[in-house]
Amino acid sequence: MACGAIKAIDDNTMEVKRMFTIPDYRGKGFARTVLKELEIWAKELGYEKTVLETGKKQTEAVALYKKCGYAIIPNYGQYAGIENSVCFEKIL
């Protein structure tokens, strides 16, 4: 129904990757649950924050991340300078 992954990008930061929900299951809380579990996992592994990237046109994703306490940050890493990307951060 929904999936996601995490990837360490430095000693303090875990990146949330591959968030996806099957269209028929969107809007039912599955992505929020996956995201919360990834945050718990990252914290258990000793990371202090999570970051992620999504497309500006992914309005549902942008809304989800904001509702889940993520703040917009300058584009990082490979997303720096990419006009269609928006990056987020959350302190765990």
Question: Strands, helices and their partners?
Answer:
Blueprint (H helix, E strand, L loop, with lengths): L1 E7 L4 E9 L8 H15 L4 E7 L3 H9 L3 E3 L11 E7 L1
Parallel strand pairs: 2-3
Antiparallel strand pairs: 1-2, 3-5, 4-5
Keywords summarizing the entry:
single chain, 92 residues, alpha+beta, five-stranded mixed sheet, 2 helices, 5 strands, 26% helix
Describe the structure in your own words.
It is globular and about 35 Å long. Strand 2, helix 1 (30-44) and strand 3 (49-55) form a beta-alpha-beta unit. It is of the alpha+beta class. Strands 1-2-3-5-4 form a 5-stranded mixed beta sheet, covered by helices on one side. It has helices at 30-44, 59-67; strands spanning 2-8, 13-21, 49-55, 71-73, 85-91.
